Amino acid sequence: MPKILIHTMYFLPEFGSAPILMNELAGYLAGRGHEVEVITTLPRPPQNRGYEGRLYMREKRDGFLAKRFPTNFAEHPIGRLVAWTIYTTATIANLVFVRRGDVLFLRLPPLQLGLTGIIARRLKGVRFVLNVQDIHPDLSIQSGILSNPFCIRLAQAFEKWIYGNSETIAVISEGFKKNLLSKGVPPAKIHILPNWVDTDFIRPMPKDNPVARKFGLAGKFTAMYSGTISISSNLALEKVLEAAARLKSRPDMAVAIVGEGRKKKSLEDKAAALGLTNVVFIPFQPYADLPALLASADVLLVPLDTEKSHLSVPSKLYNFMAAGRPILGLADASSEVAELIASTGCGLCVPPDDPAGIAAAMVRLKEASAEARAMAERGRKHAESHYSRAVVLERYEKLLAGAA
After folding, report:
1. The CATH number of the domain where 290 resides is what?
2. Whole-angstrom Cα distance, residue 105 to residue 219?
């Protein structure tokens, strides 16, 4: 039986959806009898306890092998590009241990990781699957990180070369497929496989729980964002703070922002400048507490900055639906996030640059409790039928087996 090598920069014990999803994929495939190896990085601080000073590490986890290589942890865009390059170089070096017939699963970003697959196919005759989680370089261009015209052309040419030399590309949504089709990628190469959620673990729970009480949320109507505070959502979260400023006279309402990221400090500074006492910043909590954390909210926020609304479908959306809470999407009306919320009836969606609209939507969900409960129930049912771990991981296994 061929080995399946999962390449991901982000893996447990780091926080975030990517580490959790990739750990679940590896464990599922191993449980199905596949030989699985994860090629990843040493954890970044502060989740690197027990890994300090290591330059390389092998560890067995739940029936599979994880190989960890070092990289840098800089938050600056140049530092991130360097980190992506270091990691890609490590994955290429690891091809020494790849056998003919093995299958490589390459989770993008970084886009450079596609180079590993192309080299592996040419040198070892292996097959590989690109798993596109964010559209790069588009996201970097829209964020202003990549602005030099020559560098943009170079990055777009590299993207075209990677896709042109790939046989199997898994994207997470119909919008991603349309993006790749517009760039000339043949439709036969593209497979839509959404991210998944463990609907047995993430489930509706009472709002009055130990986590809610710990952070003072049990007695307040709370709109919560939980996830990485990144370049794709920070502008929308700034508008959430402005919406909170409009709700200062409502002591029964609060906003909770849970997570870490390079933009957290700027949000904290803005909240302080606005004198917000109805906003609480909470660090990432242990994964075991995630169901109770999400249950502490009355509405869960899915923010996407206007320019990035068509370049990302956050996997947290599926977690939020599974948690049995109405969704408040902050995204362009033509984005997939907005279309999914509308088609399932699991919540509301308003433009991400409209703080008055955000505040009004929060008030509406508070005052129309029956409507909000119906939205939550519809979201939960849709998550169970379309995004449950059992349903989606079976499709991933078939795709990887087909590549082999």
Report:
1. 3.40.50.2000
2. 45
